[in-house]
Amino acid sequence: MPIFLDDCDYRQFVYQLGDVLEEFSIVCWNYCVMPNHYHLTVQPTRANLSAAIRKLNGAYGQWWNRRHGRVGHVFQGRFKDQIVDRDSYLMALSRYVVMNPVRAGLVSQPEEWPWSSYRATAGLSPAPAFLSTECTLRLFGDEPEPALQERFADTIAIHVDPALTDRIRSNERVLGTRAFKDMLASAEPIPNATLGLLI
Predict the structure, then answer these.
(1) Local structure of 28: helix, strand or coil
(2) How far apart are CA 199 and CA 114, in angstroms?
(3) I want to staple 86 with a disulfide (CB 3.0 to 4.6 A). Which of 39, 90, 93, 193 is the partner?
(4) Taking a C-beta distance cutoff of 8 angstroms, is the pair 43, 27 a contact?
């Protein structure tokens, strides 16, 4: 069921998303808000992700119910989260998130969807304060920002291996190489981990 019915709903959610990410010290690499769900690629700095998502969904749900004269839960069930190996899967995850509106047939190009991080990361519009575009752009090298923005846009346009997309859509808890999964299982600190959320 749609939970973002008009631009006012989308704007309110993005505003609340920024507040929650700042309050909980969570770095946002990219996001996409769709008519009935949202996707985030985030990097928590503390063990507080569940509390942050609970606050975000609860605050938006209460606001949405008041605005639309409804009652009850707006979001169904717990969010899906995956730990992602920055080196091998983060670029594919970034593409997956911002291409959501294209796959859903809402737009023909990702830059046409105003409720995602694509435009800001590609340098087509200002980034909201909570969005860390440099995190995503650094996946594409160390050149000046305009070159990285162009490389980002070119990479997003390239077809990705369907197996990677299937793994992102799967119920796998960890996306990465065997070495990455072994490091995670050993309880060693993981320098190259980022968390992808599919809500």
Answers:
(1) strand
(2) 19
(3) 90
(4) yes
Beta-carbon contacts of residue 174 (< 8 Å; ≥ 6 apart) = 82, 83, 84, 85, 180, 181, 184
Which residues are CB-neighbours of 73 under 8 A, at least 6 positions away? 61
Q: Where are the alpha helices (DSSP H) in 158-188?
A: 162-169, 178-185
Supply the CATH classification number for the domain 7-198.
3.30.70.1290
The encoded tokens of residue 65 equal: 């119910």
Question: For 165-181, how does the pLDDT look when each residue is reduced to its tens digit (9 = 90+)?
Answer: 777 877 888 887 788 88
Q: Which residues contact 139 (CB under 8 A, 6 or more apart)?
A: 86, 90, 91, 94
Phi/psi of residue 40, nearest 5 degrees: -135, 145
For the chain, the domains span 7-198
Residues in the chain: 199
Q: 65 vs 87, which has greater pLDDT?
A: 65
Token pair for residue 101?
């509106």
Residue 199 has pLDDT above 50, yes or no: no
Averaged pLDDT of the chain = 88
Packing angle, helices 49-68 and 7-23, rounded to 10: 150
Find out whether 131 and 31 touch, Cβ atoms under 8 Å.
Answer: yes
